[in-house]
């Protein structure tokens, strides 16, 4: 495919990922093969809604070198490994979709569905965990993709990778996987089955007036049933997924419904669980919406993991490293 045509397809796919909720903010990535030894991929940290051809980066599969001054997605190694090993691959999308991500926290190495699905088969393999953007992660995912009967792989505690020969194929695969994982979770967890129809995010307007006293912060409150069910346990919300660790940190504290306690907790975390009230999520430049989505998704991941009888959080050290890297990276980008 011609480079310009491939870049336009990446831009189209990036906007589709954002529009359909398969990703939030700039997480996830898209690439398209441009030759036997090259592909183009979304740039690191760039908004999909305003992405231009100049912000789509061409990568040499053999060397990993890229053209220009704009850095490619941090997961370019993952894409490169798949293109290198699976020559029939023409397009790859990496998503952070809710239900498949929740399945990724269950500690299982595969998920079997109620029936075979086109592009997926009767189930999907789960690649072993490694920190985002690392060579180890790209190797684990490519190894798992090679063993897979279908063209999708779930990444433990992270998200999903779908590969294919065309645009419609990979998007149909991602949406089908989300439907299949939702059915799987409903069977695995009676609590999630009960809550699954009520996973929306409210704007929390009843609490925002009070939140405005906290130095004029931007905030949303998540009050859907899965979050309120988690609050009933009166526990801090640890990180079970990578994107939660990156944007929120190792833990969102559980605090009493008291302004002083909330103010103190917000000095350490952008998300706070308020007893009897909901998850208060704050951010800059509209990030509070992304924080709210992640708090909710992380609660779903907790209940998914609990259905297996044992819940394991991410390493606090790894979570702190991811959070520190995220803050430094995006603070630098905002300062440009």
What summary fits the major beta sheet? 8 strands, mixed
Average pLDDT confidence is 88
Report the β-strand fraction as a percent range.
15-25%
How many DSSP H or I helices? Answer: 12
Based on CA atoms alone, the radius of gyration comes out at 20 Å
SSE order, as H and E?
Answer: HEEEHEHEEHEEHHHEHEHEEHEEHH
Task: Give the structural class.
Answer: alpha+beta
Question: Strands across the major sheet, in which order?
Answer: 3-2-1-4-8-7-6-5
The oligomerization state is single chain
**What best-fitting shape do the alpha-carbon axes yield?**
globular
- Any low-confidence stretches, pLDDT <50, length ≥5? 200-213
The end-to-end span amounts to 33 Å
Task: Describe this protein's structure.
With 336 residues, the protein is an alpha+beta fold. 42% of the residues lie in helices and 20% in strands. The chain contains twelve helices and 14 strands. The strands form three sheets. Strands 3-2-1-4-8-7-6-5 form an eight-stranded mixed beta sheet, sandwiched between helices. Strand 6 (121-127), helix 4 and strand 7 form a beta-alpha-beta unit. The longest helix has 22 residues, at 167-188. It is globular and about 60 Å long. It starts with a helix and ends with a helix. The model is unreliable at 200-213 (pLDDT under 50).
């Amino acid at each position: 495919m011609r480079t310009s045509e491939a870049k336009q397809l990446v831009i189209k796919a990036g906007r589709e990922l954002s529009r359909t909720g398969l990703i939030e903010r700039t997480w996830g990535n898209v690439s398209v093969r441009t030759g036997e030894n090259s592909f183009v991929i979304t740039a690191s940290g760039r908004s999909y809604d305003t992405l231009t051809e100049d912000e789509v980066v061409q990568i040499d599969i053999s060397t990993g070198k890229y053209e220009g001054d704009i850095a490619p997605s941090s997961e370019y190694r993952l894409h490169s490994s798949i293109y290198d090993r699976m020559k029939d691959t023409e397009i790859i999308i990496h998503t952070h979709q809710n239900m498949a991500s929740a399945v990724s926290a269950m500690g299982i190495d595969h998920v079997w569905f109620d029936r075979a699905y086109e592009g997926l088969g009767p189930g999907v393999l789960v690649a072993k965990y490694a920190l985002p953007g690392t060579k180890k992660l790209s190797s684990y995912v490519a190894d798992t993709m090679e063993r897979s009967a279908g063209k999708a792989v779930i990444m433990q505690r992270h998200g999903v990778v779908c590969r294919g020969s065309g645009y419609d194929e990979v998007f149909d695969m991602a949406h089908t996987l989300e439907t299949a994982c939702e059915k799987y979770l409903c069977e695995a967890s009676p609590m999630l089955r009960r809550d699954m129809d009520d996973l929306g995010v409210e704007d929390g307007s009843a609490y925002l007036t009070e939140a405005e006293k906290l130095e004029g912060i931007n905030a949303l409150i998540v009050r859907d049933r899965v979050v309120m069910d988690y609050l009933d346990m009166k526990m801090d919300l640890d990180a079970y997924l990578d994107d939660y660790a990156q944007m929120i940190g190792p833990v969102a504290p559980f605090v009493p419904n008291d302004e002083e306690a909330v103010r103190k907790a917000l000095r350490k975390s952008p998300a706070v669980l308020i007893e009897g009230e909901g998850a208060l999520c704050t951010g800059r430049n509209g990030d509070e919406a992304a924080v709210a989505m992640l708090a909710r998704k992380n609660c779903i991941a907790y209940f998914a993991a609990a259905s297996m009888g044992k819940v394991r959080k991410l390493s606090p050290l790894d979570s702190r490293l991811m959070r520190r890297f995220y803050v430094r990276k995006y603070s630098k980008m905002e300062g440009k």
